């Protein structure tokens, strides 16, 4: 697969990842290399990755606990302390090997330690490959509130080795599909149509779809790197989805990011239909595809009340008003749409039918 060039860095795939690493470690003369991983990727991904890192420089491993609950400023402080204790400086390099928690938190830690050091993202989950590691967003959660603290800062490069997906549990693979489906819904109907039937999907097919998904996201980000307008379309499903994810984060049954976003996309597609942007047939198609992959979550009236209260913290809000991304059609989205509380409640009722 051909590398994808952005205005600030390049995204490499599979074998090209390690050719690039050899080049950058030879010519950049970094003072030290630090690899951030979580307890899962440290066990399942890091050995293979380290075997292909061509350098005689000592490599220090910093390990954090896995899970969204650890995407916090407290964990970031621990990383900063580890970097300090291990002698990192501004000429050091951090390589973030992991899913979205690792790439988001690691990118933020690197962007702020000593006012900024280079970092490379090596995403190991499907979700991180097609979303979290691309676009320069870094940051941590504030309690249960998603991605409230952070900066937009590009990595030196992104290294997508799809072999890491062989280590991924099935629920995590399914979680990543949500962002890929979103890319089709907001920007490319032909891409969406490729997901109407996943029964014959091969590993090679998935590799092609990952590359295609990254191209879609990169094209949007390149036109609006600081999310002043067009880039907001990438938040389709996320206004409701992040509130749902936040609500269940500390519960006995937390949802994976993709599971929450899938529910959010069904709800926001319903809002799109009721507001007259899409027809009922398009809505029913979207709902059918998403629920066939992710199933239906049960929401009590107390859950819905809590989720609606969390909407006020969404990052897209302006002047205290919740701003939604809705669909004009499959493949086209519209930003900055308000949705009445009564419509949100009706959306949950329709979702659970």
UniProtKB/TrEMBL annotation:
Example GO biological process: aromatic amino acid family biosynthetic process
EC class (word): lyase
Cellular compartments per GO CC: cytoplasm
UniProt cross-references to CDD domains, sorted A to Z: DHQS
Record-given protein name: 3-dehydroquinate synthase
Domain 3-dehydroquinate synthase C-terminal: 176-317
Entries under NCBIfam families matching the protein: aroB (TIGR01357)
UniProt cofactor(s): NAD(+); Co(2+); Zn(2+)
InterPro entries to which the protein is assigned, alphabetical: Dehydroquinate_synthase, DHQ_synth_AroB, DHQ_synth_fam, DHQS/DOIS_N, DHQS_C
Stretches assigned to the 3-dehydroquinate synthase N-terminal domain: 62-174
A molecular function (GO) term: metal ion binding
EC number: 4.2.3.4
Function: Catalyzes the conversion of 3-deoxy-D-arabino-heptulosonate 7-phosphate (DAHP) to dehydroquinate (DHQ).
Pfam families: DHQ_synthase, DHQS_C
UniProt keyword list: Cobalt, Lyase, Metal-binding, NAD, Nucleotide-binding, Zinc
